[in-house]
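Good morning C.,

I know you're traveling, so I'll keep this short. The sequence:
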Amino acid sequence: MALTRLAQKVTQVIEGRDSRPLQPRMYYDCNPPSKAHWSYLVFIQKRDPETKQNLPRPDDYASFQINPQDNAENLSAGYLDTLSGLSARLRKRFLDGNFADATPNQLFASETIDKWRAHDLPDMVRVIVGVDPSGSGDVDNADNDAIGIVVGGLGTDGVAYLLEDCTVKAGPNTWGSIAVSAFDRHTADLVVGEINFGGAMVKHVIDTARPRTPFKQVTASRGKCVRAEPFSALYEQGKVRHAGAFNELEDELTAFSTVGYLGESSPNRADAWIWVLTELFPGIVKPRKEKTEVKMPLRLNMSNTNTGWMQ
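The tokens, ready to paste straight into the viewer:
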């Protein structure tokens, strides 16, 4: 849009010197997004973002980097410490000023999450607590596998909001208490839990921590990315929003792609959030069709005169 508006001829009047035509220029300032963004293609790779072909006049596009440290004398006390305390992904963008590596066929882009981040919340129609347990036991969980515990709600505006991430590395006694505490704190309607690991254990843990807590068990019959993919379009449309910054969970979401999960560790937080969204938007995920095996007789033509049948 900006390119198509740089059309008007303007004369630059220089005092004491001859006037001359002013060359149209455009200036952009940004906290670098991912390398899939058009700004990286144009200013760094010198390629057209639409055609992906080399720009006909690449020397017309120049870039330079200036970071907060370069302007430290004009920044308030503690600001650089705040940036240094961000997650690795956000530090790379806002402190170091680097473009993030693009996830191939990414389902959830950081730019989309930032665009629709919520600052004011409507009243909630439903509130769900999602639990995604690990396959480890009580002792192992304390040091290794996180238990995804996420709270989300459906607002009166029809938008789903991520409200809290309570994910913890702990055994059943601890994570059960955290899950039901979140249930009470947000006046939730239901706890949904994935049962591939532990079976009825999840329901038992919730009932032990808070008897008669409404609980619904879900089973992961599809892969992680297949379950997450239907919600990608809802994020782009602003129908799913984050009520605050959830760095670890967002790092997991941005590692989802159509070719698989490309993150370094298991996306426990994101999985719990997907269970919440599945409950808030029950019509989005289509039920999986079971394969039916049908045996039919196979007729073999053994010769021109003899035939045989094989079951």
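Safe travels,
E.
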